[in-house]
Structures are given as structure tokens and as C-alpha cells.
Fold these 2 entries.
Entry 1:
Amino acid sequence: MNTLIFATNNKHKIDEIRTVIGSTFNIITLTEAGINIDIPEPHDTIEENADEKSTFIYNLTKKDCFGEDTGLEVEVLNGEPGVKSARYAGEGRSSLDNIHKLLQKLDGLSNRNAQFKTIISVIINGKQTQFEGICKGKIIEELRGTDGFGYDPIFIPDGGNKTFAEMTMQEKNVFSHRRKATDKLIEFLLT
Ligand code: ITT
């Protein structure tokens, strides 16, 4: 069975991707690989930061690995918070701070269209490839639900009537950006 190191420290991402991948492949986390490091995300695009994560771990281990970078892109804010999603309210601030900043910026605006974009960057035998997953939806005006992470309490995917934070992980995976990118990764690994 293929073994891949997943270049992330985000436990929610690990759980979501493991649920999709099941037992098809063996996913090893950074902690399980004995790597205690916060991978830098110095770039201005989600694509470049995703590549940074897989390149960083490949250079360290020379093993097959992948990383992913995700951002929430809000239409009326020209794609903000986008690549800055994790630190929208400032370095070291919480997800709740990020949500409140976003809701403040959208206050009174009727266009609530947004999308999550995930880019998975995988390196197999030294060759790097990317896969994209997009989930379109709307930002609501108040927080709903306690599951999930990040911006989940304020995002309702198109075709759904609950926020991601009101869904089980299995329900979120029906719609999610991360699942769509992971499906493409699985297809690639199986061919
Ligand atoms: P790694 O870099 O270690 O993978 P991270 O938490 O820093 O983990 P990102 O830079 O990709 O991850 O994510 C940016 C932020 O976007 C993240 O901290 C969340 O606040 C938000 N985010 C990402 N995926 C999300 C999702 O599925 N639902 C809600 N918010 C999400």
C-alpha cells in the first residue's frame, strides 16, 4: 500500500482527508513521522503555499508526501481573506476573531457569495502535481453550529441548508472543497 506523509499540523484536515481516503492509502501525519515543525506559508497565492508545504517535507524526508492550502474567497471582497484566511484578523488571532472581522466587513452587504478553495500539492517519486477542489456557497450573518473548524460556522454550501459547522464530517464531505481535491488525488494515485 502507498504511504504518504501529509504535511499539515491541522487535525481537522487530517480527519477529513482520512475519512475520504479510507484504507486505500496509508496517510502518515507529521507527528507520526516524527516531524515537529510549522511549515512556512510565505507566498501570495494558495497554489504556491500548497507547493511550499509538499516541497518542504519532501526536501526533509525524500519520501512521497502531500500538503494542502485552503482559503475562503469572498466575491464582494475581491477574494479576501483568500490566502490570508488563517491570519485574517492578524498573526496569532483565533478563528473566531477571523470570523468576526469577516462579518464586520460584510455588514449590510447583500452579496454573500463565497467559495472555499483547496489546492493539494503532492510529490510522488520526486514529481510534483496539484489538484483543486472548490465549494461555492454563502456567508450567513450569524454563527451557527459547533462542529468543524475555521469559517465553518458562517458558511452554507450551495445545495445545503446547514452551515458546515452544523454538519457531521460525513455531511461536510458531500459538499466540501477538500473532499473534491482529495477525490482527484485518489484518482491520480490509483492510475
Ligand atoms: P496547515 O497549514 O498546517 O495545513 P492551517 O490551519 O494553517 O494548516 P491553511 O493555511 O490551509 O491551514 O488554512 C487557512 C485557514 O482557512 C484555516 O486556519 C481555517 O481558518 C480556514 N479553513 C481551511 N479549511 C477550512 C474548512 O474546511 N472550513 C472552514 N475553514 C477552513
Entry 2:
Amino acid sequence: MSEIHLLSTEQLITGLQDKQFSSLELTEHYLKRIDALDGKINSFITHTSETARAQAQAADEMRAQGDKRRLLGIPMAHKDIFCTQGVLTTCGSKMLHNFVSPYNATIVSNIDKAGMISLGKLNMDEFAMGSDNSSSYYGTVQNPWNLERVPGGSSGGSAAAVAAGFVPVATGSDTGGSIRQPASFCGLTGIKPTYGRVSRFGMIAYASSLDQAGSMGKSAKDCAYLLQPMIGHDPRDATSIKHDMPDYVQDLNDAEAAAGDKPFEGLRIGVAKEYFSEGLDSEVEQAVRAALKQYEDLGATIVEVNITDPEITLATYYMLAPAEASSNLSRFDGVRFGYRCENPTDLIDLYTRSRSEGFGPEVQRRILTGTYALSAGYFDAYYTKAQRIRRLIVKDFDEAFADCDVIASPTSPTAAYKLSEDLDPASMYLGDVYTIAVNLAGLPALSQPVGLTSDGLPIGLQLIGQYWQESKLLSTAHLFQQHTDHHLQHSLIAKETV
Ligand code: GLN
């Protein structure tokens, strides 16, 4: 029982079915760990322990009465970007320090309906803007592999909580890499689905044309389990798309059953030299190339492809994402909900001070850049031009996918770094260089662990797929994980028993 948190989601499901433990015992185990160890890493903003216990008890009763939902009674936690009815939803910001959502995000209801138990809300960069969780109003998050390092961002709390063994799986959101990069920094698998696959209703908007929710877990199969209840068309999100509904876990099982000793026979992996550019850490490059060699040894063919110059992609993203953010965040005005300044002298003072006091520096920087890009006189030069380049990025991916089935790259140019005062925003933005193109094109992509640096920090490999091919990505990573053990390594905190 003391190492139950090292089990996979599937092992937890079997454990519940075979009555090795009850959902209440499982929930208590995780709650005890969070209680004893989260002081070291600060991954939670809000705990929902009491409702979790009640739900777990109810789940045990339903199971006893024959309820067969496979995720019934399995604990998880949500990134604090998802609205949770009756529960504080801060989005990592002082602006929403008192916001108790009156409704649930669609994915929150769906995960509830699947019978999962939410243990609370996870820390994140303010309004999901950042790559190391340092912009959270609720404090930085420490990486469970090395407490002096960042967990990545913006889903840093989600990644840290899973890597610490506080929950088996967690939700995240990804606008420019926020699921994949923290997954990579914390030795996890994390998937951002095709844009439109998962409803954005109730997910606090950063850049609406790029935002997409997804799942994080220790393995591709863990991600498949949590992603399943998240997907599907939602009439309350105009950009959610009606599409066939795969059963991811079944697809992974089928892929495994069909696999011989060369499971990747016929799989063409595209590798772009643009993704192995200047600035890529040599240990990261080595681990990624070694993983590609393992894919080849298992039957895959590596083909060279070209994608848009990442520097151009980076500039495009940092024009469009702030522009959309400046528009989305205009709703936080101190009037209807959230933070309101003390003693405003008039309406303008109320708006100005509520926003200046409620938003942190990174969010203000994005609102300013975005508003500038959208202003009359600069709109064509910046925003329209960036939109045109976005079309070219899509076209370049289309052409690349004519020659390959998936594209592989490092997830991030470095492993988890130390927070330092001198990390200027532009250098932090550079860390997103391999992940953002995917969001601009709306493609699905995942990050999977492929080894450790000499300092013992996890390294991630990114796999990008064609539209709607989440199953292909997950089963590719899953088959790789059947032959390797990178995903079975545990962080320092996960190894602690309480
Ligand atoms: N690091 C990127 C940014 O700050 C991506 C964030 C995200 O995906 N939410 O914009």
C-alpha cells in the first residue's frame, strides 16, 4: 500500500476491480502524500479533500452495486484554468483570487461523469502565460526531480503533482507547449490533442485559436485513459468539432496485440533539421537522437522533412498569442467578478487600478504587446502579417506530412533549469521554440520521456501527428514504452513514502 502511487492507471483500475484496495483507501493514500509532501513543491492551489472522500465513498458503493465505468473511483486533479462549480478557480492570478465558479468546464463535468475523483486545483503560470510556473500569484512550483529546478509551465503544478505521485493523472492546457514542456521537464507523457477535439467551454481563455486541453500522466496509456472522457463535440464551444470518437485505450491494446518484434515496421518518422538548431542542449540532443535510433531499431524509418524556420514561428506566436490575450483578458475589469481595487475614485480609476493591481508583470507585458499589435496603424504590419505566416506554417506541415507519418523533435531545447533573476522574458520565450508551431497549425502532439541528463533531469521527445491522429501518437509512444523504461523512472519525491 505504501507504494500504490507508483502504479499505472491501469494497475489502479485492476486493483479496484480485484478489491486490492477501495477508492477511499486510494484517495486517502494520495491525500496523505499531498498533505505530507506538497509543502516541498507547492503543486496545489486548492484542496478538495472532503468532497474527494465523499466521492470516493460513493464510488465504492456504486462499484459494489455493479457500476462498470472503468475510471470510477480513480483520483486525478485539474489545472486551475478549468472552471469548477463551487470551487475556487484562480487561473494562477490575483485577479481571480476570490473567484468561485458558478459552473463547471465541460471537461470537468465529463471527467466527473466518468466517476473520477478530483483532489483539487493545480498551480500554474498566471493565465497560462509562462514556461516555468514563475508567474503564478500562488508561488513557484518546485520540480519533484530536483527541488532547485522549475517544473516547466504553464501546467507546472499538473506536471509536478503527477511526477510527485500525488495523483496518477492530471489535466493541463496547451496554447504553445504548456502540456508538453512541463511533461518533458518532469519525466511524464503529456498530449495536446487536435484543436477542436476537446471542448474549451469553461477553460479560461488565453489565446482562443491556440488553446487546447489535454492529459498528463506517467505513460502514454495513462494519458489515453484520462483523455477519453475529455474528448467530443460540445455545442457550447463553437470551435469544437464533430468527429469520430475513438476508444484510445482499445486502440493502444489493439496496436500492442498487432505488434511483432519490429512494431514500427512501416512507420515513417520525419525529422527536421530546423528542430535540431543552435541553442539545443547537447545532452538533450543526444538523448533524443538515441531515442530515434531505438525507434529505428524497432522498425521505423527516419526521413528528412522541412518545417517552417522556428525563429519565424516564434515571432508569429508571440504576436498572435498576446493579441488574442489582450482581447480575452479585457473581461477582467474589476466590475463583475474577481479582484477589485480599494476605494476607486471613478470608473476609469476602478478599471485601471483593478487591472494594474490584479494582473502580474508577465500578463501585463502580454496585454501591452498584444494591444499594440492590434492597434490601428500597426494591425496590418503585425497582426495580419502574423496571420499570413500562420497559413504558411500549416502549409509547411502539410507538405512534411506527405513524406512521413509523425514528426519527431526535442520537446524543449533544455532540461529543467534553475530560476534566476536574470532570465529575461525573451530567453524564456525561446524555450518554446519547438512546441508552438503545433498550436499555430492546430495539430496534435505529445511529449514522452526519453532519458535523463547527467544531473538526473528528465528529457522529452516530441511527436507531432496529422489532424485527429491522437491514437496514432499515443500508440506510437505506448509501443515505444513497451520496449523501454524511461517512463518507469521515479522522481525524488515519488520515491518518498509517508
Ligand atoms: N510558454 C508559452 C507562453 O507563455 C506557452 C504557454 C501555454 O501553452 N499556455 O505563451
